[in-house]
Design goal:
Blueprint (H helix, E strand, L loop, with lengths): L1 H73 L5 H15 L3 H12 L5 H15 L1 H12 L4 H32 L10 H22 L2 H22 L7 H10 L3 H15 L2 H6 L1 H6 L9 H10 L2 H10 L2 H42 L1 H20 L1
């Protein structure tokens, strides 16, 4: 009997091991095939999002010429202040800044607004886009999360964006007036536009024949929002493991690291709304604190203009490219000066402002009224 049992054990162990290895190999093969399919699927989504983005820009370009009188007279966009308020409110309405920035370029290309007006409208689009972070924070509050933590990220995003962009607006206006950066252009735009015209002109002409002229701009806005949605879906899902928290906690205390991180994530996602909105759940889970993400917001606010630069190239309008480049230059200059010389004082000022807003509901209500009333006032100037 002992020999029998020993024999059984000798036979049964290799059998189990053989079954286990074959299962693992089969599982690995299935995961590899699944990963390959997902990889191909994400590439397809990226190509589709890029195709729709280019199509949307061309449609908005055609539609902007038709609705030019409505924007100029109906919405009273006649100067830079009007354009700033209009872009600000427009971004609130559609909960995104990139389509509004693209619309500013198409309005400029159609002659609705001048160079300074386009610059101001793009600035307004970025101010309005930061509201999405506060909106996400409100959702977390409704789910029972701490109000100060959930709303703090959105309020900080609005405050940092507002202070840097309004200073950048003044600097950029001077740069545009002096023409300091007019000679910096993307040289490959002619070839790119020739290829794009060959592919997209027949589609645009077909839609022009079947749709009212004013609707082309509206359809373009819808398509460009769809393209950003598809682009978000083709990005890899990021997960944070507990073992990585130690390394991350050391990095978040270094302003320049966070500045580069914010710029990099926004450059990849091509959406400041995406890169800033992820701060709310990260803050609620304790991975980041408000005092650590001010440089992150600054970096994100610079590279968010990459898609707008592409839109300028697609329009084949050299002054439009200059407007966007000056926007990036002025925000970069303001952010670097703050980080180099006055960061700790600036950090305290921003955190104190956010603390004041969240300490009482009345203070928060005052701030909310201000960020909606100011763009309305700008529209009337």
């Amino acid at each position: 009997m002992p020999g029998s049992l020993e024999g059984d054990s000798i036979v049964s162990v290799p059998r189990r091991a053989k079954l286990s290895w074959s299962t693992l190999i089969g599982y690995a093969g299935m995961m590899k095939k699944l990963g390959a399919r997902l990889h191909v699927g994400k590439i397809a989504l990226f190509i589709a999002s890029l195709f729709l983005f280019i199509l949307a820009i061309n449609l908005m370009k055609e539609g902007a010429r038709v609705i030019a009188p409505l924007v100029r007279d109906g919405f009273a966009v006649r100067n830079a202040a009007n354009a700033l308020g209009f872009g600000w409110l427009f971004a609130y309405l559609i909960m995104s800044g990139s389509p509004v920035a693209a619309a500013a370029l198409t309005f400029f290309d159609a002659g609705v607004i001048d160079k300074l007006g386009a610059f101001a409208m793009i600035t307004g689009s970025r101010l309005g886009a930061s509201f999405i972070v506060l909106f996400v924070g409100f959702i977390y509050v409704l789910r029972g999360r701490d109000r100060s933590v959930s709303l703090g990220m959105g309020l900080l995003s609005l405050t940092v964006t507002g202070t840097t962009y309004l200073i950048g607006l003044a600097i950029g206006a001077v740069v545009l007036y002096t023409g300091l950066l007019n000679d910096i252009q993307l040289q490959s735009g002619v070839l790119l536009n020739s290829i794009i015209d060959l592919i997209f002109n027949p589609i645009v002409r077909l839609l022009v024949d079947f749709l009212p002229g004013w609707s082309l701009f509206v359809v373009g806005i819808g398509i460009i929002m769809l393209s950003f949605n598809l682009f978000d879906r083709c990005l890899p899902q990021m997960t944070i493991k507990e073992s990585q928290v130690g390394r991350m906690s050391r990095l978040v205390y270094r302003p320049w690291i966070m500045f580069i991180l914010g710029a990099s994530i926004t450059l990849i996602s091509m959406s400041v709304s995406v890169s800033l909105s992820i701060l709310v759940p990260l803050s609620n889970r304790g991975f980041v604190r408000r005092e650590n993400i001010i440089p992150y917001i600054m970096g994100a606010n610079i590279t968010t203009f990459v898609d707008t630069l592409l839109a300028a190239v697609l329009l084949n309008n050299l002054p439009a490219f200059t407007v966007v480049f000056v926007e990036m230059f002025s925000i970069t200059l303001v952010s670097v000066i703050i980080l180099l010389f006055i960061y700790r004082r600036y950090e305290r000022a921003m955190l104190n402002a956010v603390a004041w807003m969240t300490v009482r509901k009345r203070n928060l209500a005052i701030f909310m009224v201000v960020i909606f009333v100011v763009p309305l006032i700008l529209m009337t100037l």
